[in-house]
Amino acid sequence: MEVGYGEDRAQRLLRDRVQSRWMAAYDPIKHLDPVLVITALALTGVGLLAIYSAKLQALTQQGLPTTTFISRQLLALVIGVVAMVVMAMIDYRHLRTYAPVLYVVSVFLLLVVLSPLGTEVKGSQRWLVVAGFQLQPSELAKIAVLVMIAAVLHELKGNIRLGAVALGLGIAVVPTALVFLQPDLGTSLVFFWTAAVLFLIAGIPARYLVTLALGGLVAIIVALQTGVIEAYQLRRLTAFLDAADPALAQGPAFQTYQSMVAIGSGQFAGKGLFQGTQTALSYVPENHTDFIFTVIGEEFGFIGASVVLGLFVLLVWRALRIAILAKDLFGTLLASGIIAILSLQVFINVGMNVGIMPVTGLPLPFVSYGGTSLIIWFAMVGLLLNVHMRRF
Amino acid sequence: MSSPSDASPALRLTLLAVIVIALFVALFARLWFLQVLAGDRYVELADSNRLRTVVIEAPRGSILASDGEELVRNRPALTISADRQELLDLAGAPKDAAAAAVIERLGELLELEPDAVLERLISRRYSPFRPVPIAFDVAPETVFSVRENQELFPGVVAETLPVREYPFGASAAHVLGYLNEITEAELADERFATYRGGDVIGRDGVERSYEEELRGAAGQRVLVVNARGNVLDVQSEREPVEGHNLVTTLDLDLQRATEKLLEGGILASRELTTDDDENIPSVAGSAIVLDAQDARVLAMASWPTYDPREFIGGLSPEYAEYLYTDPDNPQPSINRVITGRYPPGSVFKVVSGAAMMETGLAGPRTQLECPPEFEVGGNTFRNWNDEDEGRMDLSDAMKRSCDTYFYDLAYRQWVAEQRRLEQVDNDLEQLDEVQARVSREFGYGSPLGIDLPNEAAGVIPNRQTKLATWTDQRDLWCELAETSDPGYRRDVLAHNCQFGYLWLGGDAINTSIGQGEILASPLQTAATYAAIANGGRLLEPRVGEAVLDRDGEVIRQLESELIRDLDLEPAVLDAIRDGLERVVMEQRGTAEPAFRGFPLDEIPVAGKTGTAELKPLVPYAWFAAYAPADDPEVVIVVTVEQGNGGSQTAAPIARNILEHHFGITDAEDAEFEAGPAILD
């Protein structure tokens, strides 16, 4: 049967319709992960409440508005949401192109932080003050290192040799060293850990992983032996082990001890919002930033703390799902890298709050007060959404 | 899993998931432990963190004289103290740079040179076991500065030390007593459960016996503090309960006069000499004035005395030496009126006279010989006078203090008791030892129960006590007898070793004149004379009159307790009283010389001298009296340890006190005029 023009046109129209329906069905914007976004927002909300509670008494006493901290955090949230949208919109595959730029900018900023332009707070030089805003370049570097290593590993398509490992390690080592000099041991660990997890997912042979682990161990021993980590730092790092010792509880372990008292005294159901005495009376230093979890533990008890940890588990689950669904290795690597950073940071942060990890300066993602951290974490959520949307 | 490189990405992601799950499980487990399993403990820790208990001292009550004059009042003094052990090394220099900085800061705060702080800190005036007061009576702001910045002042404490104020100085020190910090041992005792370390507690006198009333109860304030120690709120508050005031029976004017006259008399008597031409030691003494009708203590003095102010903030070593080891001032801290255990000597004849009349061997009118000596079983017992005084009745025997009169009766009674003892097969339970029984009825051998601590019981010897002592001491006596040099002492020891359990005639004889083993306190003697004065009622002497609250309302009125009615036969009582009056008011009465010039027509005085032997020491001088004899108001007892004759040293002191009391000669103008030495 002869196929007529009209028939041909009708068929083309039908094809177009089907295609546009398919296109509409696969439109990235229709494949957002609402659970992911809502979970991130929920954590931020809990954080805002905890920050408000942590600073309520102290600010009232100083005669400052009680919203001083949360208004800044809300501003960061707005910027973070914008960053999330931006990160979600640009196709993540283009990030491979920009990765070196992002990486170089981050390393540059980390160098600037260490220069006299950086701002020192409580013995650590971590911040850059730009137009009245304190920026923490090491947060940006987290994304940069993640994207850069993921891009390199993606290019190699699982064909990982010694040179690739060396290159990946090299990418991680530069910011690791720079951050270590601030000093910020926690974030250094995050870089190293990100590289290791990415190697694992990208299919690095087991012997390399074992060698890496051994190398890390040797590095630690060497650091201790040669005095790169000084005795007082070591004492601070190990103080949490003896937080119950009264001598240490008033000295190096004061923070860990007070934080354990705060969380422990919250018991099962918590003391109630704004009812935490350890929180209100400022017994736990930094309880709006690194020790925000003490506020949650004290005022909301085991139930509240579990809900917050549960939200993190939810995030990990969504990210894992995205890692599995991702269209390419790059997407999988990005999602797994975010899982790695998120879970390590939660573990180190909550771990030091409950006295099972040494005190290193790492914020609790989404929850701790700190603009840069919050913006970067929403950017990471954007990245996850990006990978999720473009999975077809 | 063979090798990750061969495994699928899914497997690798599973591995990542497992690692992440492990991390979260660890966190959940830890949270469960902290919040659920160990939560209770952390709640306590959080509370101890935020709550600080501040003790609010209760002001201690005042002690007043009977007219309401304050003898002791309480003043809380804000004090900055420092812990020597925390700040100084053993050489007394600052322990380290931090300690030196603390001392410097303390100096700035108190506006003192650091050297001055150091000087106070190393002063030996204070016990090493408590913080050394650096500054008394500081401003409240200074206290706050220290308490709020405790981290700047380690080892420094701001505390409220109750400082007792004594408007009349050392007056009535023995009655009032003093305060001292409670000891560790006491704190461990549950009787002191309401005390905390650093609390003061009454140590002697009414400060101790009325401790509960005077002390009150400390309050406390539970504060909510933040990490910096700033006080945010008061969680609970318990107001301190102020201590009650105590009104004593003391007549302040008489008390001060008594003290002055006792001291003056004792010191003046030291100018006198004994028969051996040696100065009378008069090492110590006491005087008590009782209300004859209800045994209220109007004045009570013991010499040497002490100054209770010295106890404030701890004793200095010099004062501690004076209090406890000075050979020239034996034991100034004890109240000899109630703790003195002396042989009463002849003042006891009032009691033995009453006892002898109960034996039935003689009546008050019975005339007995008063020879210079009384011989029994080869032993000679002498009267104090070596002239034969002829026949006399009980009243005469009192007046002349005739020893042999009592020897005769006591010996006959002893013989009768020995006979009775044989009849009852040596069962001491069935034997009425009249002398001992009557003595006990008069309140000897046990404390009377005055409201002051450490009252002595004294000793009333009898067959039972002698046996008990011998059972106890026999080995020692025997050993000493063997090792001693030959002589009187060895003979006595040897005798006691073998026969020390025997109540001999000599024991009965000695006891009848207040000698031998018998020991009595001036207080017991005073109670006896009050009973004689008031017609036979033995009363419990007291120094407490009433307990008042801060508004002066009477909370507890203290009453004199009747210990017992002595049921003395009127004839006996009259004879004794007659004798006592003649002691003072008749020619040849033993106290008559001492009272020459006293207006006895207006104020008749009845009394008794005593010269108690305590060989090898110089005798103890006694004088006990009541006045006016026809309508007794006051009883007075004066003792001078090693003051020689009762009529020589004790009676003149008593006379001066009576003259002051009855407005004849003020204590300011009084002079000690010694009586004759030869009289009992």
Largest interface in this structure: A-B, 53 and 41 residues
Count of domain modules of chain A: 1
Global mean pLDDT of chain A: 87
Question: Helical stretch count of chain A?
Answer: 15
CATH architecture of the domain at 52-246 in chain B: Alpha-Beta Complex
Mean pLDDT over the residues of chain B: 89
Structural class of chain B comes to: alpha+beta
Structural class of chain A: mainly alpha
pLDDT < 50 runs, ≥5 residues of chain B: 1-7
Count every beta strand of chain B, where a strand is a DSSP E run of 2 or more residues.
23
Please give the structural blueprint.
The complex is a heterodimer of chains A (392) and B (680).
Chain A: H1 5-25, H2 34-62, H3 68-89, H4 92-114, E1 118-121, E2 124-130, E3 133-135, H5 137-156, H6 162-180, H7 185-202, H8 206-226, H9 231-238, H10 246-249, H11 254-266, H12 277-280, H13 292-325, H14 329-353, H15 371-389
Antiparallel strand pairs in A: 1-2, 2-3
Chain B: H1 9-37, H2 39-50, E1 51-56, E2 63-64, E3 70-82, H3 84-87, H4 97-110, H5 114-122, E4 132-135, H6 140-148, E5 156-165, H7 173-176, E6 179-181, H8 184-188, E7 200-202, H9 205-209, H10 211-215, E8 219-225, E9 231-238, E10 245-248, H11 252-269, E11 284-291, E12 297-303, H12 317-324, H13 336-339, H14 349-359, E13 368-369, E14 373-376, E15 379-382, E16 391-392, H15 394-400, H16 403-423, H17 434-441, H18 463-483, H19 488-499, H20 505-512, H21 522-534, E17 537-539, E18 544-548, E19 554-557, E20 562-565, H22 570-585, E21 606-614, E22 617-627, E23 634-641, H23 646-661
Molecular structure report:
The complex is a heterodimer of chains A (392) and B (680). In chain A, 71% of the residues lie in helices and 4% in strands. The mean pLDDT of chain A is 87. Chain A has one domain (32-389). Chain A has helices at residues 5-25, 34-62, 68-89, 92-114, 137-156, 162-180, 185-202, 206-226, 231-238, 246-249, 254-266, 277-280, 292-325, 329-353, 371-389, and strands spanning 118-121, 124-130, 133-135. By secondary structure, chain A is mainly α. Chain A has a three-stranded antiparallel beta sheet. In chain A, α2 packs antiparallel against α15 (371-389). The longest helix of chain A is centred in the last third of the chain and has 34 residues, at 292-325. With 680 residues, chain B is of the alpha+beta class. Among the domains of chain B are: 52-246, Penicillin-binding protein 2a (Domain 2) (Alpha-Beta Complex), CATH 3.90.1310; 345-526, Beta-lactamase. Chain B is 38% helix and 19% strand. Chain B is built from 23 helices and 23 strands. In chain B, strands 2, 3, 4, 5, 10, 18 and 19 form a seven-stranded mixed beta sheet that branches. Chain B has a five-stranded antiparallel beta sheet with strand order 12-11-23-22-21, sandwiched between helices. In chain B, strands 1-8-9 form a three-stranded antiparallel beta sheet. The longest helix of chain B has 29 residues, at 9-37. Chain B is elongated and about 135 Å long. Chain B starts with 8 loop residues before the first helix and ends in a 19-residue tail after the last helix. Mean pLDDT of chain B is 89; it is low at 1-7. At the A-B interface, α7, α11, α12, α13 and α14 of A face α1 and α2 of B.
